[in-house]
Amino acid sequence: MKSIEISARTVAEAIRLALAQLGKDRDEVAIEVLEPGGNGDEALVRVTVVEDEADETPAPRAATTGSIEQIARQILEDILERMDIHAYVTAVVSSVPNQRGEPEETITLHVEGADEEAMSLLIGRRGETLRSLQFMVNLLVSRRVQKWPQIVVDVGNYRQRRQESLEGLARRMAERVRQSGRPLMLEPMAAYERRIVHLALRSDPTVYTESSGEGENRKVVIYPAKRS
Prior knowledge:
Blueprint (H helix, E strand, L loop, with lengths): L2 E6 L2 H12 L6 E7 L7 E7 L18 H15 L5 E10 L5 E10 L3 H8 L4 H18 L5 E5 L2 H23 L3 E2 L5 H11 L5 E6 L6 E6 L4
Parallel strand pairs: 5-6
Antiparallel strand pairs: 1-3, 2-3, 4-5, 7-9, 8-9
């Protein structure tokens, strides 16, 4: 099988360059993301031409076999196709510590496309559409694999930018708490955003965090550490 590695500014651009060099379409290759890029680093992908046997019957697109990340990617691609949105979806599996510090396998589905308006539509106001899309993908995958997966959907590195913004906010608010000696409550956030704040301040011995409230009004509260 012919395989090449291409680096570019984004995963989508690297895939496009590789397909052009190989003279193949997206469904004729297997794509492996070696480096997702971001923070000034280039993305690196390996694209391999898949040579089907002449008598081989193609598997249906919505096959229930395969790894969870393959099933998740197929489901998201189907949703985007029904929305008439042309984009590349790549799956990256990583181990991320949860709030208790225990490793938890997370599948991140990166969506990238040339149509900036369509990408903005997928994100929605303050990421609301993106959260709904992510919930739908998790729900559909859970019905296939009979367990609730930990799948994150990211469009155009929006979540990475949002994570950096929230980590900066958490550090600034922690400094205010240290100076005032009083607790400070942040704005309501989605569960994954609260998790980012908790993790950002977990190793700070001068403060501690707790979540307060119910449903969509659940917030992170930053408290000054109790002095012994």
